[in-house]
Amino acid sequence: MSNYGKPEEGRAHGLSFAGYKTTLGAGVAEVSVDQDTDEVRVHRFWAAVDPGFAIQPKNLEAQVEGGIIFGLSGALKERVEIVSGEVQQNNFYDYNIMRINDVPEIRVQIIESGAAPSGTGEIGVPMTGAAVANAVWSLTGKRLRHMPFTPDRVKQALSQ
Rounded distance, CA 94 to CA 44, Å? Predict the structure, then answer.
């Protein structure tokens, strides 16, 4: 689905795995790192999910897409700062989240094994951070170990 290992020039693929109950999922992120700003950009994200038997496939697909967006927002943007025990952010104007123009192309494929349905929960969420981090490692040879992968943290990792 992702043509894994053959990304566009200047980009890399990263693979991850997630499980929820007996549902299995795999994600692939295609990312680039801006050399001037150290910003990680996810261009595409693919997910394959085996829920056993999908009772409502379109709803499951939408739920996985939403989980991927939520997970990418947490992996790349969301950060709460606490100074002297006080949270510094108090609304969306100073709490950075993924905006519509940041959302990558997403493709979800449901692969039914025929097993009993077990629920998918938020299986799209946990696969995102690992896929992005693995893609950055593939592109740069450097590991990102602390989310969110903000430009300051990416710059620090790339300089080590």
Answer: 27
Domain locations in the chain as residue ranges: 12-159
Query: Residues near 159 by Cβ (< 8 Å), separated by ≥ 6?
Result: none
- CA 96, chain centre distance (Å): 16
The DSSP letter of residue 24 is E
Q: Show the tokens assigned to 19.
A: 């499980």
Cα separation, 7 vs 88, in Å, equals 39
Q: Return the CATH class of domain 12-159.
A: alpha beta
Distance CA 42, CA 127 (A): 13
Question: In whole angstroms, what is the distance from residue 111 CA to residue 143 CA?
Answer: 31
Query: 89: burial class by Cβ within 10 Å (0-12, 13-18, 19+)?
Result: middle
| pLDDT tens figures, 81-129 | 999 999 999 988 888 899 999 999 999 999 989 899 888 878 999 999 9
Please compute, for residue 23, the number of CA atoms within 13 A of its CA located in the half-sphere on the CB side. 22
Q: Tokens standing for 69?
A: 């967006």
Please calculate the CA angle 40-96-158 and round it to the nearest 5 degrees: 30
State which amino acid sits at residue 124. Answer: G
Output the pTM of the full model. 0.93
